[in-house]
Amino acid sequence: MTVRRWSGHLWRHRGTFLLVTLVTTLLLILWASQLLQHPRGRHIAPAVERIPYSKHVPTIIAPPTAHRGGGGQMPKLRPPRNPSEHPARRKRRHLPPVAFLKMSKTGGSTVQNILFRLGERESVTFAFPYYTYQFSYPRRFRAEFVDDLPAGSTQYDILCSHMRLDMGQLRQVMPLNTVYLSLLRDPVHTFESVFSYYMSTVPAFTLAQRAAASHSKSALHVFLEAPESFWDPAEPWNGLARNPMSFDLGLNNWGWNSSWAEDLARLDQKFQLIMVAEHFDESLVLLKDLLQLDLEELAYVRLNTRSAKDVVNLSEEMRARIRSWNSLDVLLYDFFLRAFWEKAERYGMNRLRREVAGLRAVVEGFRRRCLSREGVLPVELGDLIRPWQSDSATILGYELRGNLTDPEQETCLRLVLPELQYHSYLYFQQYGRDMRSVPEE
User: What are the entry keywords (predicted)?
Assistant: First the structure.
């Protein structure tokens, strides 16, 4: 057939030809969009060896076997027997992927528990650390710190384990439509809690504790009198010793520089919601709206709380010294507090107050139905519901009622389940094996 005859043939059937071309183009666009939507639809296979915690950095937590009930076995927490029997299971639209930046001592364990329960109920794929419970903290987050996708999963749906943020690396792991969340707390209360909880872990705090042994003052008081004398910024774990929230957000935590305002603005653009611990219920209502949840899914008890004897009673002078030493955290908190109330105004303050009242009624109902005692000392709790204990602070827990039905037991146990036990359980459910411990040197 000559070129002229081919041209005539194509011209006569040009409508069909254009239609086929259009359909082919549309199919290619849909295929490319699907690839972009699920960029991690494969196992993570880094070109380098998995990197555990830095050799010279102490870990914040003990190996997993130290936190399992029943002599090193997995906690005796059974999965829901079938979807219809789970007390909170019901149909609703698909949950968007969620990445929650869980920071040090801001109340993140309580939010993590909500996300754990939500993810378990919806059978999502969690992005868990390759080793133990944290993403190689205090190193900046890297994609290879995440364990492989389990068989049959195409993407990670929830990431909520402790990390130090690197947003570029995090976006390599999570889908494009991920909702990014975090939780801030008043810098004075955050620093007092960080100091108490990590006194034996953060080198600057340990030095202050030793110095306080010959004084009649608390270690925190001694530290605040001359913090520069204890703080060595070259020590990796000393990141928490100054502006700990800025450190966890991956920001410069040493001192003000010209890029700080731009850094805050970029974070504000990347996070759909940064919650505020001092307005926790209001934060959960905004989270409910963002993720299209029900109030019952946001029921909570405050986890990882310290005994009153371990909370330092701060004078006004000590508060002023904390704010001065953590001036970047003060700027950070004030910036996002304003952003939080702007979101609340857009949501509607009257509507917000009504929803908060409804949430508090739900929370109170769960507490009455589930709990027999609150603020229980760890020695009085069984392995399954005993929180991990810091060397320098007593962490309290909850005791459940003894007359619960099986469905109530399932719901109430998850409500009070400490972070490490729940983390271990969900990891086992997802992978069918125990978590890996950090390799010994």
Answer: Glycoprotein, Golgi apparatus, Membrane, Signal-anchor, Transferase, Transmembrane, Transmembrane helix
Separation CA 127–CA 217 (nearest Å): 44
Q: How far is CA 221 from the centre of its chain?
A: 30
Q: How many CB atoms are located within 10 Å of the residue 264 CB?
A: 20
Whose structure tokens read 């909702």? 179
CA quadruple 75, 396, 184, 284: dihedral sign: positive
Distance CA 287, CA 276 (A): 11
Task: Name residue, tokens 């000392």.
Answer: 377
Give the Cα separation of 101 and 389 in Å (integer). 22
Angle subtended by helix axes 280-291 and 349-370, to nearest 10: 100
Q: Tens of pLDDT along 340-376?
A: 999 999 999 999 999 999 999 999 999 999 999 999 9
Phi, psi dihedral angles at 264 (to 5 degrees): -65, -40
DSSP string, 336-370: HHHHHHHHHHHH-HHHHHHHHHHHHHHHHHHHHHH
Structure tokens at 205: 């705090």
pLDDT number for residue 79: 66
Residue 293's CB is within 10 A of a number of other CB atoms, namely: 17
Give the pair of three-digit tokens for residue 102.
Answer: 């869980």
> What is the model's pLDDT at position 80?
57
β-partners of residue 276 are 184
Give the domain ranges of the chain: 51-431
